[in-house]
């Protein structure tokens, strides 16, 4: 798998957890509704079965007591009722004559409510009748002998056992339902974690790429379903971004190289290869700041070539350019590695001397430059009458600002010109 196990914090509400909660909620509601429906149906079915059993028992008992009513045998009828009272849910039972007089009666302890029989005419028309309440049921059965109504049998049974059975069954069902919900919760977590694994990994991959900006990663495709097609499109997008990023990086590198090249060209003299006036101005400011901050001594040389105009007029500009290149090479060979030699333009040069131990070092270097330029220079078979005049100024002794230091070295150079050329002079205080 291409996905790196990056340190990505899990989301506060993951898709797996949310779908598990929704599925469990739907499953719980469905099971609860099913339970309520089953409990209601079970209660109604059990009640109807008990009612049917009570009606059947009432018919049998009515047939048993009918001879006793004809022969007015109350004792036998009472014995029959007491034998019938062995039914666990029976609350009361009595036999009445057609005029409503109680012929025989039995009731469980604590039952004081009287039983009322239907009118004989009503029973004659409808046969057995029943009434069901919440806590008990009543059955009225006609007592006949050879199709003649001789009495009425009335019984009342409790529904407490039915309620207890339904409650016990409901408790067991609820316990099983809770157990099944727990099992379903565990199963849903495992199933949905497996089913949503590609989507979760895709989310972690997107988070990793957003943080690390690493577009070389790719999502793993497990199945050719909707998530698999999404992963394919995501990988295609990453590939395009990676190519675009590589192209952009290459373009930026080219632009950076071009910018550096242009910067070098902007700060480089095209003829001699030395730094130009623009570069010189920036370096002078920088070295002056270091000089002031560190309390160091530095010097600036203003160098002007002698007889250069004469060379240009007599031998031409091409020879003059060769002279400038040769002078640049000679002076570059004479200076220190940390010194900055620049061509300001024409036959004017400047040399920045940082970190000087004393003034004598700068004066010795000025003389060395003059001697290097005065060595016989032959170009196109002709000896060039070239020399160098140097003006020398020190910072912070003569000036602490770039313009003032440049003016001081320039004045010193003109003082050297007046002294006879091919020599150097150092600035006097007040020259700037």
From TrEMBL:
The keyword Membrane applies. Keywords: Membrane, Transmembrane, Transmembrane helix. Signal peptide: none annotated. SUPFAM superfamilies: HAMP domain-like, Nucleotide cyclase. The chain crosses the membrane at residues 26-46, 166-188. Residues 296-429 form the GGDEF domain. InterPro entries: CHASE8, DGC-Regulatory_Protein, GGDEF_dom, HAMP_dom, Nucleotide_cyclase, Rev_trsase/Diguanyl_cyclase. This is Diguanylate cyclase. The lineage of its organism: Bacteria, Pseudomonadati, Pseudomonadota, Betaproteobacteria, Burkholderiales.
């Amino acid at each position: 798998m291409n996905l790196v196990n990056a340190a990505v914090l899990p989301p506060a509400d993951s898709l797996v957890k949310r779908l598990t909660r929704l599925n469990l909620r739907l499953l719980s509601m469905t099971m609860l509704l099913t339970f309520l429906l089953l409990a209601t149906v079970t209660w109604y079915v059990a009640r109807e079965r008990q009612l049917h059993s009570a009606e059947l028992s009432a018919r049998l008992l009515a047939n048993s007591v009918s001879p006793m009513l004809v022969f007015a045998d109350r004792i036998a009828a009472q014995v029959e009722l007491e034998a019938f009272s062995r039914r666990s849910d029976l609350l009361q039972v009595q036999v009445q004559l057609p005029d409503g007089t109680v012929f025989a009666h039995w009731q469980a302890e604590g039952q004081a409510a009287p039983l009322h029989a239907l009118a004989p005419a009503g029973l004659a028309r409808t046969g057995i009748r029943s009434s069901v309440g919440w806590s008990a049921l009543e059955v009225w059965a006609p007592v006949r002998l050879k199709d003649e109504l001789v009495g009425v049998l009335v019984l009342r049974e409790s529904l407490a056992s039915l309620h207890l059975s339904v409650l016990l069954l409901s408790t067991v069902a609820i316990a099983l339902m809770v157990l099944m919900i727990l099992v379903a919760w565990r199963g849903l977590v495992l199933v949905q974690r497996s089913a949503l694994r590609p989507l979760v990994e895709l989310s972690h991959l997107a988070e990793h790429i957003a943080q690390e900006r690493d577009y070389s990663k790719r999502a793993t495709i497990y199945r050719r379903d909707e998530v698999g097609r999404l992963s394919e499109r995501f990988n295609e997008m990453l590939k395009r971004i990676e190519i675009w990023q590589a192209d952009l990086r290459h373009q930026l590198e080219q632009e950076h190289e071009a910018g550096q090249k242009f910067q070098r060209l902007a700060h480089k003299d095209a003829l001699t290869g030395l730094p130009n006036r623009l570069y010189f101005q920036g370096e002078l400011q920088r070295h002056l700041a270091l000089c002031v901050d560190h309390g160091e001594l530095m010097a600036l040389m203003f160098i002007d070539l002698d007889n250069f105009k004469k060379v240009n007029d007599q031998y031409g500009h091409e020879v003059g350019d060769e002279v400038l290149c040769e002078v640049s090479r000679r002076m570059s060979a004479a200076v220190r590695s940390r010194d900055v030699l620049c061509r300001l333009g024409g036959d004017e040069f400047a040399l920045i001397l940082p970190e000087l131990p004393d003034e004598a070092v700068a004066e010795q270097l000025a003389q060395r430059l003059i001697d290097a330029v005065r060595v016989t220079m032959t170009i196109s078979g002709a000896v060039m009458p070239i020399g160098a005049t140097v003006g020398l100024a020190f910072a912070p002794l003569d000036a602490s600002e770039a313009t003032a230091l440049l003016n001081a070295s320039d004045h010193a150079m003109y003082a050297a010109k007046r002294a006879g050329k091919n020599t150097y002079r150092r600035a006097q205080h007040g020259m700037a």
